[in-house]
Write a structure and sequence with these properties.
Number of domains of chain B: 1
Strand order of the largest sheet of chain A: 2-1-6-3-4-5
Strand content of chain A: 5-15%
Number of strands of chain B: 8
CATH class of the largest domain in chain A: Alpha Beta
Radius of gyration of chain B: 17 Å
Shape of chain A: globular
Structural class of chain A: alpha+beta
CATH topology of chain B: L-fuculose-1-phosphate Aldolase
Helix content of chain A: 40-55%
Largest sheet of chain B: 8 strands, mixed
Largest interface: A-B, 32 and 28 residues
Oligomer: heterodimer
Helix content of chain B: 25-40%
CATH superfamily of chain B: Class II aldolase/adducin N-terminal domain
Strand order of the largest sheet of chain B: 3-2-1-4-8-7-6-5
Distance between the termini of chain B: 40 Å
Structural class of chain B: alpha+beta
CATH superfamily of the largest domain in chain A: Aldehyde ferredoxin oxidoreductase, N-terminal domain
Shape of chain B: globular
CATH architecture of the largest domain in chain A: 4-Layer Sandwich
Distance between the termini of chain A: 35 Å
Radius of gyration of chain A: 22 Å
Chain lengths: 597, 203
Amino acid sequence: MQGWAGKILDINLTSGSIETLPLDMEMARLFLGGRGLGARLLWDLVGPEVHPLSPENALIFTTGPITASASQTSNRFNVSTKSPLTDTILHANSGGWWGMQFKRTGYDVLIVRGKAAAPVLIEITADGVVIKDAADLWGKTVFETTEALGQSRNKRNVLCIGPAGENQVRIAAIMNDKERALARGGAGAVMGSKNLKAIVVEGKEKNQPADQDQFKFLLYETGKLLKASPLTSQALPEFGTAVVMNVVNEIGALPTRNFQQSQFESADKISGEEITDSILVKNQACWACPITCTRITKTKSGKEGEGPEFESAWAFGAQCGVDDLDVITEANYLCNDMGLDTISMGNTIGCAMELSEKGLLPGDLGFGQADKLLDLIHATAYRQGIGDELAEGSYRMAAKHNAPELSMSVKKLEMPAYDPRGMQGQGLVFATGNRGACHETGNMLGPEVLALPRLIDRFATQGKAGIVSVHQNSAAVIDSLVYCKFANMAVAEEFFARTLTAVTGVPFTADDLMVIGERVWTLERLYNLREGFTKEDDTLPSRLLNEPVAAGPSEGFTVKLAPMLQEYYAFRGWDKNGVPKPEKLKELGLDSLISNQ
Amino acid sequence: MIDQRLYEEFRDIGRDIFVTGLTSSHGGNMSVRVGDKIIIKRRGAQFGRLKHSDFVETSFQGKDSGIVRASTELIVHRAIYEKTSALAIVHAHPRTAIVLSLSRDEIIPIDNEGSYLLRKIPVVTVEMASGSKEMAEKVSDALRGYKIVMQRGHGCFAIGQTLEEAYHWVSALEEVSDIILEHKLMGEEMIEYRKHSESYAKW
């Protein structure tokens, strides 16, 4: 294969049918792969009448044209589905090895529909595709399942759910390669609803670039850029993603105790520096990645595993008022083993802590109670006691106790580790996120804090909508190729375009990629509009709009969302209700989707 | 209209462009995209002394009277915003780069920093030099593949997410051009030190 394998594997678990379909190459040119192709296929397969946890929902696993090409960070893959947490379109992507290995089986896409009568797993190897009984695996944790199925880094890779997915916890993740996660939005619950425990892949095919000379040159040049960037060559390898903990805290944008403050007095105790000093065993890299940001750590009690990443350290740390790094790290391990999204889990526990402190939730839960974290996570995965409420995510839990405003979420997806009162552009990213409050779909940490590619005024609002839109479009196309966004902090889109051209033999410019990103973003918007979402959903928790930060470098600021949102709709060619105008749809080649409705 | 934070960015970068000799007192222009509008320097405003009143807000498609006061090159700016993902544009008249553009179809840096930042700068030829449709089309087409292009004998257009980014490319281009010119004037043979340097010509 040169870029695309040209094949879709389509499995219906209700009937047991296994089919190979041709990939529509025009669709591939317009949406590339990963998140874009997933969204396009989901548009046709899963309409507004489908409940996310019904057999009619589909799980669409997609790779991109550069996946498995050996271009730096070309290991990632995506899953698209309708989210049981947000009811929006959902895309989630992950690194590791599974995506590369699946691509080597000779497919670009795996569609899983229907529901098996009893627990099953899917095995895809050079010998063929089989659906196997998995009764003996049901109930096992992620680590147990991964080991039982013979995970072998470069030969045989396991993707599975844990107890959280089996119990259809709305914040359940799909895990791959033991501790990598398709984390956000509850894709694990969709997999559980299908009685699908695992997907095992072994591949032999290769993604061989069409222009080998140019590909080698680009590998060399990209390698130079990754080495030249202090972020990708020093900060991430040395301290992991939590290298930004102190940075975000210093500027007053680290949400603390359910976003009641924007600085955590013990940030240094949960920072990347502290992780390196006290618990780091070694770095680890995903396939074909020179950055090596993954942390292999060991706690005082002798437990060892991956993490914590910045977001996880924040979620169980500052968000819950906890500064015990050992407990935070073991909370991370436990989420991986149960198959839970660490951001939503920690954020939801923080919400429960505030509810309890305000007397809205029975019990004596409160901020800083590190000793409660592990029990709460376990209870969530098995829906036991209070865990059954946490399993619904923060919004449904807070709404049940008549305080939905205490859920720090957008479209019911829990917010990650940035207080947008100190990063106005990030507020617009969260409010307009197609899958809810997500930093991965347009992270403004780069321009608003890290000066990547340029430092912009984090409190300014005029002109911010354009920058946010470009970052959202860029993230959408990177998720469609599929590359790692850390690489994008050192390597510009023009390199991705040239590498894509070298791999596929099809010419692409950087601006072609940005148009594809805009097409993907707009299609996701159309999907949500079709589901009944409106501009009223493009908002933030009232705390962020109405309660100024009380102290610190962001003191006095709320998010000035209204003017940015108005500018945002205009920039994107949408009307005042946030609906893409017909001329914009025509420009992006999406008009036929609407006219066919 | 333009707010204080954005005005200060225009003012400071305009001053820097003028004092570093990248344009004459009144030459060149710059703009940013805000929503479905463009904020652009007015025609004839001094680059080094920009005031609040030196800016024009005009619609993206041009159906308003803003064009009366806007820069002559507005048509080029609009075409660039339409065809690329640019959020800011700087047009300047860097002297050494203009000199090189008189005899070259592309400017390929020979210094390390210039190679790293720009790799190659294409030169486009335009018969009607200022504010023409031909110029708008050729320059905007070229900017789909590059972040800065030269118009032969006239000046450069650079794009970025911010004015500062676009200014960076202009400044880098002139440095690249100075080094090429000075090396050529020195007349000594270059010792190639960059692996795969032959590939820059194909960039």
